[in-house]
């Protein structure tokens, strides 16, 4: 599991590990069903922890159905619903296969040496990448030649995985060693190798460029408390895989003063805060019951306790969840009870459950067992089919994104369209396709002489861009989808009637999802500025710098806007503030200094646009922006495209093909700024 990755999806590591877990769970259930058909009976080895695990599974499903805005995205989100359900299935059905045919209740040890070997091989690969040995192999792809490459996904995930395995292995080797059977030198060597990798990994993480960006615990708790203010989210949370919305709406203002202000976190500070926020009080109660049940066990599992303590400090990545449930499988394979259907009359079912005689103790047949087993197999086949479609869609969208770097625009378009046909429920796919369409429209509009066919193509591409951006909003309303829709409309400001109103309305909605984001205020102010509406532009820039006092872009844009409003003294003060933030030897500093020097010495009487004119459309003079009511957004067709022979460019902004960024492999807890 720790080694598995495939470079055919946007996320090489976590997503593929997540899919591997799902496939393993489906296979374990399928094998159990086949064995049940063969035996004409269901035989279950049960453990007291099963009730708690079923409670956790039930709360994930309940929150998914009640709170998650997009069920498909929540299921496919690594460490989300499908990951947890798959791991719980592996614990339960894996136990059935592990104990199949066994008469005794002997203690099962399934993780010891396999985990130690796994950790040692991961350590060797990390040493080879860290010290440049992999970079010397010309046959390897470029991403494997970096000094921090690891199949674990990131150095941070590797270190957490190895630390838990080392602690568990020390306990395992100590308990397995006796006077007659001492610990082998090979085991000690593997352990030393793993410890060395942990130390090298920690020294690597100390470097600023490799340091993981994690949500502070104080911020995580603040966000959790904010989610409790609504009755529905207090009980059932914001929904699995939907922490981003809770973060943007509940983050504390103090975050804007730190280095993490531009990050959007998709996980909370630790696993328990994440559960509390996404699953609510019901989910917290289920996890609490699981912890209580684990604590009551006679045999305390050191590895299990180590993971439970670790996820108090850090978010639960997919490797930690794997270890957690692997140790649960090892724990629940001991002291089991047996249930079976049809019931046996024997007073000792363990002795007769798998009688190897010619079947005298087996039922001659049970149609209900066969029927339910076949239904299970049909359900697994159906789930596998939809999972294969979802994975194929992910592979197609990845190829489409990679193809955007080439000159083959048709291939880029077709690959992304195929991804949407296979899985139309992913908002990220619609965002990618919307941006691709607007970029292609810009390319066509950049021709010197537009033909009627070119104009028709532009209209079609722009319409598809708007429709897909709207589809993303409807599938998963968030700051990301609304910001994307606003950026699509902003690209149409010079060519589409009504695009100004729709752009402002979309940014307003994005701000409602992320009210403390100064970058959104900067973007909205930029829209007003491009429309020569300097008073509302200045207001947005003022809000941006009030949220983040050291925001150089905000102060510089505010200074330029004051200059346009002929507020010379205010402009001078804003330029001077900008200079105090910028590095003196940077080009930006020189540019701001030149702008400051160019200001006239004496202020003149300003002539400004009244902000009240924008909030009262009936009094707005011709040429001013009339704001579109937010409630109307998504109901009408959107801005009407009108390309004249003189307007050969859709937008004055860059026509580069803009595509959404996937989370960096070095940090699975955030999305890129």
Question: Which characteristics define this entry?
Answer:
two-stranded antiparallel sheet, 3% strand, mainly alpha
Let me know the number of strands: 6
Average of pLDDT: 85
The strands making up the biggest β-sheet line up spatially as 1-3
Gyration radius, in Å = 30 Å
Helix content: 55-70%
- Please state the oligomeric state of the protein chains shown: single chain
Q: Note the overall shape.
A: globular
Strand content: under 5%
Kindly name the structural category. Answer: mainly alpha
Number of helices: 26
For the sheet with most strands, the description reads: 2 strands, antiparallel
Uncertain parts:
345-361, 606-624, 626-637, 640-668
Distance between the termini: 30 Å
Describe what you observe in this structure.
The chain is mostly helical and 673 residues long. The strands form three sheets. It has a two-stranded antiparallel ribbon. Helix 6 (155-176) runs antiparallel to helix 12 (302-313), helix 17 (427-445) runs antiparallel to helix 18 (452-475) and helix 24 (568-581) runs antiparallel to helix 25 (587-598). The protein is built from 26 helices and six strands. Mean pLDDT is 85; it is low at 345-361, 606-624, 626-637 and 640-668. The radius of gyration is 30 Å and the shape is globular. The protein has helices spanning 14-39, 49-66, 71-76, 81-98, 112-130, 155-176, 185-205, 217-227, 231-236, 243-250, 271-295, 302-313, 318-332, 349-352, 367-403, 409-422, 427-445, 452-475, 479-490, 499-513, 518-530, 534-547, 552-564, 568-581, 587-598, 611-615; strands spanning 42-46, 264-265, 337-341, 496-497, 640-641, 670-671. Helices cover 60% and strands 3% of the residues.
